[in-house]
Design a protein that fits this description.
Elements lengths: L16 H29 L7 E5 L2 E5 L9 E7 L2 E7 L5 E5 L4 E8 L6 E7 L2 H46 L15
Antiparallel strand pairs: 1-2, 2-5, 3-4, 3-6, 6-7
């Protein structure tokens, strides 16, 4: 009987010097890819941040942003309780002052070109401070208005009294008599 034998050749990995020469080139290409190409591609896809900031200054709210990120203009929305305001912000503007009407104010700032690029900030206003200041200012203004009305009424009565006195004086005085006109002839 004849038997067949199968010969299996297994390749042994040979390392040649020529193959090692490609290793530094491959590492350099990977480093360039990791440090230069990928970050630049991400920088191109990222837009500058608006850096939207909302903070309370007394009874008002100061809204600031990076004007270089919104150099073409932007859309600013302010949600103050049930009130909603939207406005165009020109590129040269970088801050805004807003008088809060409620204790919770939300600000949305977004690009006009790309609806996906927007930032939202929120400010919780100390309620007693803002309402108390407004109430005090209203009370002072109302008191000043009452004083001015009283002073105006007093001066009106004085003007009326002086007018009556002047009318009586004019009634007692006879009207002035005209001087007779005489012609003098010189000779």
């Amino acid at each position: 009987m004849a038997t067949a034998t199968t010969v299996v050749h297994q390749e042994v990995f040979e390392v040649r010097v020529r193959d090692w020469a490609y290793l530094p080139v491959a590492c350099f290409a990977a480093a360039v890819l990791a440090y230069v190409v990928i970050p630049r591609a991400q920088m191109l896809s990222l837009r500058p941040k608006f850096n939207l900031s909302v903070r309370q200054e007394g009874a008002q709210i100061r809204i600031t942003w990076n004007r270089f990120a919104a150099w073409k203009g932007a859309n600013l929305e302010i949600v103050d309780g049930s009130q909603h305001m939207a406005m165009f912000v020109p590129g040269r503007l970088s801050n805004l002052t807003y008088q809060a009407r409620t204790a919770d104010v939300e600000v949305r700032f977004g690009s006009l070109n790309n609806a996906g690029s927007s930032e939202i900030a929120r400010c919780l206003v100390r309620e007693p401070e803002s309402v108390a200041i407004l109430d005090n200012e209203l009370a002072k203004t109302t008191a000043e208005a009452a004083l001015l009305r009283g002073a105006m009424a007093q001066r009106t009565r004085r003007v009326d009294r002086l007018q009556r006195i002047a009318n009586r004086l004019l009634a007692r005085m006879p009207p002035p008599r005209p001087k007779p006109i005489t012609t003098v002839w010189w000779r």
